[in-house]
Design a protein that fits this description.
By secondary structure, the chain is an alpha+beta fold. The protein is built from 8 helices and 7 strands, in the order αααβααββαβββαβα.
Length: 265
């Protein structure tokens, strides 16, 4: 169903009614004021007829006009929202695209610096294991289906405040605002398990999917570039140590404070 034909919310109906009502009343006030000023020296009967016309005509003309204009403005707002959504989301997986994801995380980090955010969190980078073999064995269409399945699996285990973006190819970024070490590892493992359970149906068989996850926990001032580089290094370590696993570390600025905890894990 096209967006502009979907049932309107109660708030939307009230807003449309308000625009129609106050727009019509505005036209009515202008019409009555003009008629009273222009024809106030006329005979009372003529003045009365003039005021009746000045009342009826705006109601008959302005009410449907403002209703129509408000409806078109709503449709325009929906189209603009869809365009913004298309510009910020990856069309294949439905996740944020790299630019939108990076911009959002950078804004959150800036808010943290100003004391308006969650003061810390974690950045995860998840990469599909042996993805090239999927394209080579089953074709690029199945590769696209695998990426969709991975994106859906990741979103299914995230908190409402978390955000995921497709960084390119088979790589996904996940930002966990306010997450501590334990939460970051827990979410990383949930992502890994969810992807492994998703699977990729190929004919009568189901190809197992898996991701390697690199995670960096931070607190205080940092940048997206610094976090991404650190998470990417942990992702490389996860690939090196056998894939289908989560590797976690502290951001470089926190490494001395959390060194013992890293060694313990």
């Amino acid at each position: 169903m096209p967006d502009h034909r979907r049932p309107m919310s109660k708030r939307g109906r009230l807003k449309m009614a308000a625009w129609t009502l106050f727009g019509t009343l505005g036209c009515l006030c202008v019409s009555l004021t003009y008629n009273w000023i222009a024809f106030r020296d006329m005979a009372p009967e003529a003045m009365r007829q003039g005021l009746i016309s000045a009342t009826v005509l705006p109601i008959l003309l302005a009410t449907p006009l403002f209703f129509y204009l408000t409806l078109k403005l709503r449709e325009l707002a929906i189209v603009n929202h869809r365009l913004n959504d298309l510009a910020s989301h990856d069309s294949l997986t439905g996740c944020l695209n790299r630019r939108a994801f990076t911009t959002l995380v950078e804004r959150r980090l800036a808010e943290d610096m100003l004391g308006k955010g969650s003061k810390g969190g974690a950045l995860l980078v998840a990469d599909a294991d042996h993805f090239k073999s999927i394209n080579d064995r089953f074709g690029h269409h199945q590769g696209d289906q695998a990426l969709k399945a991975i994106g859906d699996a990741i979103r299914s285990v995230l908190r409402s405040s978390d955000v995921v973006g497709r960084l390119g190819g088979e790589e996904f970024g996940i930002h966990l605002p306010g997450a501590d070490w334990a939460t970051a590892r827990m979410v990383g493992e949930r992502v890994r398990v969810a992807v492994s359970r998703a699977g990729l149906p190929v004919g009568d068989l189901e190809h197992r999917l898996s991701v390697s996850v690199g995670c960096v926990v931070y607190s205080g001032q940092t940048s997206f570039r610094e976090l991404f580089c650190a998470a990417d290094q942990r992702l490389y370590a996860a690939k090196h140590h056998g894939r289908d696993r989560v590797e976690i570390a502290a951001a470089p600025s926190l490494a001395p404070e959390l060194g013992d905890l890293i060694d313990a894990n």
